[in-house]
Write a structure and sequence with these properties.
The structure is a single chain. It is built from 6 helices and no strands. The protein is mostly helical. It has one domain. The protein is globular, with a radius of gyration of 17 Å.
C-alpha cells in the first residue's frame, strides 16, 4: 500500500469515527427520546438543527468521498479491515469525551484489533 493510499484509508476511517462521536454528542444534547408520531417533528427539528448532528453527517459525506477514492487504489480486502481502527479511536475518545468505561476485556479486544490491522496492512 502506498503512502497516499494509506492516507486516504486512514482519513476515511478517522472521519467515520469522528462522525460517530459527533452524532453521540448530538444525541447527548437532545437527550433520550421515544419513537412516536407525536414527537417526530419536535425531535426531528432538534436533530435537524443540532450542530453536532450536522457535523456528524458532514463527516460521513466527506468520508464516503474519500473512501471511494481509497477503494480506487486499494483492494477492498485490505481497505475494509482498516475500518477497525475506528473502533480503537472511538473507544479511547469515548472514554475521554463521554466518560465511557474501558474495561480489561475491551483493552484486550482493542489489542487484537491493532494486531489484526497490522497483519492485514502488511499483506
Amino acid at each position: 500500500m502506498t503512502t497516499v493510499s494509506f492516507a486516504l484509508v486512514l482519513t476515511g476511517v478517522l472521519l467515520n469515527a469522528a462522525a460517530q462521536l459527533f452524532l453521540k454528542s448530538g444525541t447527548n444534547a437532545v437527550g433520550h427520546f421515544d419513537f412516536s408520531l407525536d414527537n417526530l417533528m419536535p425531535i426531528g427539528m432538534k436533530f435537524a438543527f443540532n450542530p453536532y448532528i450536522i457535523g456528524g453527517l458532514t463527516c460521513y459525506v466527506v468520508s464516503v468521498v474519500i473512501w471511494i477514492m481509497a477503494l480506487s487504489r486499494v483492494p477492498v480486502s485490505v481497505a475494509y479491515p482498516m475500518l477497525s481502527i475506528g473502533y480503537v479511536v472511538n473507544a479511547i475518545l469515548a472514554y475521554y469525551l463521554f466518560g465511557e468505561a474501558i474495561t480489561a476485556q475491551k483493552l484486550l479486544g482493542i489489542g487484537f484489533i491493532c494486531v489484526g490491522v497490522w497483519i492485514v496492512a502488511r499483506s
